[in-house]
Write a structure and sequence with these properties.
mainly alpha, globular, 249 residues, Ferritin, 67% helix
């Protein structure tokens, strides 16, 4: 197994799947500004995925393009976090999912800009600028919804209770990470988890929300074991390339 290729798939798949989920809000946002904002967030993530997949194809060296990696793999070959494939639900659910992910992605990119792999460092540097805005946007909404009306607080607390079980996978590490860490390509998750926990705790406190206390954690996405929701995403995402192979706009 090429560890670098595997790691790039994890990065790229995260961006692709959350980007696709956000694109589902296009035309359905609660207000016009948010409709536009979420569509732009989606485009940011799809742009990240394109850059990462392009590099992954070069690393793999089997002639697969970014489009091939995005559209022509089976579900078990996707390595995205299970958190990201969960249904959008209401606006509060989407913002909570976004917030939990953004709070992880920012410290990750802050460390990847120092990667010994020049291409990863360059992708991280460009993506970090976008991610800082993503985190500001989702954090402000979590505070606004949590510290808002009784209805908005109850809804966003339910979202946190539902999604918290998936957050342990954010800090998943295996032999892929160990090999790349030894080469200075990727950072340890220890510091990232510390930064994530500190920031998430601060924002949730300001939002008057309570971190769930439970021992149930759900992982598997990094190993290609997903919830049923990914299959529905891929059915929609891959239809055109499956029906019309090689199709280009």
């Amino acid at each position: 197994m090429n560890s670098l290729f595997e790691y790039l798939l994890r990065l790229g798949d995260d961006s692709l799947i959350i980007g696709h989920r956000l694109s589902e809000w296009c035309g359905h946002g609660p207000i016009l500004e948010e409709d536009i904002a979420m569509t732009n967030l989606s485009l940011d993530f799809i742009g990240q995925a394109t850059s990462i997949y392009k590099y992954a194809g070069e690393v793999e060296d089997k002639g697969r393009s970014a489009d091939d990696l995005a559209f022509l793999r089976f579900d078990r070959e996707y390595k995205n976090l299970i958190l990201l494939e969960q249904p959008n639900g209401d606006f509060g659910m989407t913002m909570m999912k976004q917030f939990l992910f953004d709070s992880y992605r920012k410290p990750l990119f802050e460390r990847l800009i120092h990667s010994s792999d020049d291409m990863i460092a360059a992708i991280a540097a460009k993506s970090l600028k976008e991610t800082k805005y993503h985190l500001k946007h989702s954090s402000e909404w979590i505070i606004r919804l949590g510290d808002g009306t009784e209805e908005s607080r109850n809804r966003v607390q339910d979202s946190l209770d539902t999604l918290w079980r998936y957050t342990s996978e954010l800090f998943f590490e295996d032999s892929v990470d160990e090999e790349l860490k030894s080469s200075g390509i990727v950072p340890s998750m220890d510091g990232i988890k510390k930064d994530w926990s500190s920031y998430v705790g601060e924002i949730l406190n300001r939002a008057t929300l309570t971190i769930p206390i439970n021992n149930w954690e759900q992982e598997g996405g990094r190993k290609g074991m997903h919830s049923e929701h990914l299959g529905y995403i891929l059915t929609e995402l891959q239809y055109m390339q499956r029906a019309y192979p090689g199709m280009e706009w």
